[in-house]
Each structure stands twice: as C-alpha cells, then as structure tokens.
Design brief:
Organism: Melghiribacillus thermohalophilus
Order of helices and strands: HHEEEHHHHH
Pfam family, one: Zn_peptidase_2
Keywords: Membrane, Transmembrane, Transmembrane helix
Strand order of the largest sheet: 1-3-2
Protein name: Zn-dependent protease
Radius of gyration: 21 Å
Length: 228
C-alpha cells in the first residue's frame, strides 16, 4: 500500500468516527432543547408505546450517563439516561421510542436481532483475541496464526454489520410508533428523523472502520504469503 493510500486510510479511521460522534451529539443537543408537542417525558413515551404493543411486562429504568440509553433483552428492561427519562424534548421522545423499537423486535423475534444475540460471545472473543493473534502471527512469521486472527476479527466485523439492520429497523419502528400513538405531530417528523439518523451514523461509521481494518489485515496476510 502506498504512502498516500495509508494516509487516506488513517484519516478515514480517525476522522469518520469522530465526525459521526460529533454529529450525533450536536443533533441531540439541538433537539434536546426543543419540547415535543405532547409534553411527554421519555419514560412516558416508552411506557405508552410498550403498552400499545402489549409489552406490559417490559420495565423502564433510569440510568446515569449521557446517551447511555439501551434495551436489555435478558432483563426485558428499557433503560433511559436521566435526561431522556425525565426530559420532554423531541430528542428524548426519539431516543425512548428507538429503544422501545428494540423491545418490539425482541417480542416479535426479529431475525437480525436474534442473529446478533447469537454472535455476541463470538464477537467478544474476536474483539479481545484478534489483534493478539495477528500481532503474534506477524512477529513470529506464522501465516496460520495470522489467519486465525483474521477469522476472529471477521466474527467481530460480522457483528458490526448485523447491527446495522437492527438499528435502522428499530428507528423505523420508532417513527411509526411515535406517529401512530400521537406522541408527535406531522410537523415534528422531520426533526425526529434527524435525531434517529444521526444516531445511526455512529453504527455506520463503526462498521466502515471495522471493515477497513479487516481489509488491511487481509491484504497484509496476502502479502505475507506472496513473500514465502
């Protein structure tokens, strides 16, 4: 790989995640200062959508941290950061609805969500072990060990790729539910989509970076074999 290609690669590797993170934070900050028309808190939005879908058993809990919102499929709990749990903003409604979207996916046994759950142990192992195996393969000039590291990394990358349809589907469900339940009005749909799309960018950026890293090591592996 030429010097210019390496520079482009590292610029993408460093700049893309930073840009995506800045985009989501700026968008969230902007729309967290605008109240939603229903004046419902994020917790109330989540409860309403859950109940409308018959998910009365799914609990809602408050957690610390900024944008630490998530759905726990094991405990069947939607956890919302304090600002979104108590906030009446458009951003709070969008984030809460998105996390409930995951709860609906879980209840309906959405295929990609099930696949992602199944990949978690392998992906964690791949994330923790791949670089050590690749580095050891390079230093010891053991192509087979290098290849095992690449396979482990590929498992982690696959997890990142499967995450994309899961997140986009949750956002689509969120929009549909917010409109259907009357939480937002038609003139708020555009702003809500901006919040959801900005959040999705972080997953896209992570997937692109993971793919580039995998490609780089595959090319290095090919070059190593050609030298033998």
């Amino acid at each position: 790989m030429s010097l210019s290609a390496y520079l482009i690669y590292f610029v993408i590797l460093l700049v893309l995640p930073l840009w995506a993170n800045m985009r989501v934070r700026n968008t969230y900050k902007k729309y967290s200062q605008i109240e939603n028309s229903s004046m419902m808190t994020g917790a109330q939005v989540a409860r309403k959508i859950l109940d409308e879908n018959g998910l009365y058993h799914v609990k809602i809990e408050e957690v610390n941290g900024m944008l630490s919102d998530h759905y726990d499929p094991r405990s069947k709990v939607v956890r919302l950061s304090s600002q979104n749990y108590h906030g009446h903003s458009q951003a709070a409604a969008a984030v809460a609805a998105h996390e409930v979207g995951h709860a609906i996916q879980d209840a309906q046994e959405y295929a990609f969500l099930r696949f992602r759950h199944a990949l978690v142990p392998v992906a964690n192992l791949g994330s923790n072990m791949s670089f050590f195996l690749i580095l050891a393969g390079m230093l010891l000039e053991l192509a087979n060990l290098f290849l095992v590291g690449i396979i482990f990394m590929a498992a982690a990358v696959l997890f990142q790729l499967v995450t994309l349809p899961v997140e986009f589907d949750a956002s689509n469900r969120a929009m549909n539910q917010l409109v259907a339940t009357g939480v937002i009005r038609s003139n708020e749909e555009r702003e809500t989509k901006k919040v959801l799309n900005a959040a999705a960018l972080t997953y896209v950026a992570a997937a692109v970076v993971a793919l580039l890293e995998l490609l780089r090591f595959v090319l290095m592996f090919v070059a190593m074999n050609n030298e033998e």
